[in-house]
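Help needed: design a sequence for this.
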């Protein structure tokens, strides 16, 4: 998630938050003990983020915006969602009035609110707008926001899913900052052999890192990446790798028969992700807009995240039977999909100079290289539709 500044002191959590974190800590300790003394890091991350009622995304604390831990692009204002909607409208028009939109992880509902209004204006409304949201708390917040801010006809198009669509469907799948929160295995190399990172307990019950020989799936995935690097990983090199990403992509699109998929996240093409200089991976934790030093600290109170290997995503999408539409920075994507016109239209609706100033600052935050503009990347896929025009500005597919 987007967070800054990273080096200021993080405010201490209150007593209720500490008690909540301690409950999750005890649950994690019990799970480790019941699992023979250690669990894969990916399992630790999964429970820390998604344990029912206790995990970071499952509990009720505010996540998004100034009072939360990070700011996503849709939470900054209307521009991001408006441009994404402009990119998707031609696909929905190609598919016709029975097309659906499925959003993975709806955040606060801010994206859906703007996107639906924009699609209405573009005469490209889907038959339904489905949000796949695993967090009951976030689902309730999304429902409250959209019920309040959408007209009843638009709100009636929205439904919430407990699982990806199972039957055949046509439409668009959209995910903003979802892959970075997938529980990821971590690997390291010892004497040329691949090991997987596990989490164990020390004598005082604190979480500590330990390594165990990797299973065949992770080891093969590491060797696949290694061949593309043109040189072996050096001993001690440690990073993240999602061997389950192809299965995840196939699962979340369900029975998507005809349409497009669009993913926005922070990350790198493979050669940059696994560069020789990045010897400890991309794993990090965020709390109150600052990077936390220890991913084991305060479970349930901080986000744990890793960057995305966009080459792996390209492999997963094409392996699922889609064509790669394009790959570019967030700045290029927004500029190529109506940022200037959306900014001008939004400014024209405002009569307060302070509002117009905030809108221009939003545009800068979304596009400047030192902000979200280059750290965030966009990748699209298509099947039996044309979506490549959304990537005409600054396509970087050659870097994959």
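Sure. Designed sequence:
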């Amino acid at each position: 998630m987007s967070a800054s500044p990273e080096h200021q002191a993080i405010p201490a959590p209150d007593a209720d938050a500490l008690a909540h974190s301690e409950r999750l800590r005890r649950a994690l300790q019990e799970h480790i003990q019941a699992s023979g003394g250690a669990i894969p890091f990916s399992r630790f991350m999964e429970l820390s983020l998604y344990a029912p009622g206790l995990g970071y995304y499952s509990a009720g604390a505010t996540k998004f915006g100034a009072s939360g831990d990070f700011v996503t692009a849709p939470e900054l204002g209307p521009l991001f969602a408006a441009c994404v909607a402009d990119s998707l409208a031609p696909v929905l028009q190609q598919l016709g009035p029975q097309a659906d939109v499925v959003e993975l992880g709806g955040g606060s509902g801010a994206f859906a609110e703007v996107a639906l209004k924009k699609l209405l204006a573009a005469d490209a409304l889907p038959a339904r707008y489905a949000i796949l949201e695993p967090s009951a708390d976030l689902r309730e917040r999304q429902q409250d926001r959209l019920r309040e801010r959408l007209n009843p006809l638009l709100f009636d198009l929205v439904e919430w899913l407990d699982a990806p669509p199972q039957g055949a469907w046509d439409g668009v799948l959209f995910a903003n900052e979802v892959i970075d929160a997938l529980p990821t295995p971590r690997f390291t190399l010892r004497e040329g052999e691949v090991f997987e990172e596990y989490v164990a307990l020390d004598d005082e019950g604190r979480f500590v890192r330990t390594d165990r020989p990797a299973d065949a799936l992770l080891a093969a995935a590491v060797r696949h990446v290694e061949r593309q690097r043109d040189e072996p990983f050096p001993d001690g090199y440690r990073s993240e790798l999602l061997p389950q990403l192809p299965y995840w992509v196939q699962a979340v699109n369900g029975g998507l028969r005809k349409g497009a998929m669009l993913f926005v996240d922070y990350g790198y093409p493979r050669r940059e992700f696994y560069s020789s200089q990045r010897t400890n991976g991309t794993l990090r934790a965020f709390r109150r807009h600052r990077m936390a030093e220890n991913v084991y600290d305060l479970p349930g109170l901080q986000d744990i995240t890793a960057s995305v290997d966009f080459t792996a995503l390209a492999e997963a999408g094409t392996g699922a039977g889609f064509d790669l539409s394009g790959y570019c920075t967030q700045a290029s994507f927004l500029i190529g999909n109506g940022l200037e016109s959306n900014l001008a239209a939004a400014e024209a609706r405002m009569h307060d100079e302070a509002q117009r100033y905030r809108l221009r600052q939003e545009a800068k935050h979304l596009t400047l290289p030192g902000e979200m503009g280059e750290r965030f990347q966009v990748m699209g896929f298509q099947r039996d539709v044309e979506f490549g025009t959304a990537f005409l500005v600054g396509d970087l597919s050659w870097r994959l």
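Confidence is low (pLDDT under 50) at residues 2-7, 62-69.
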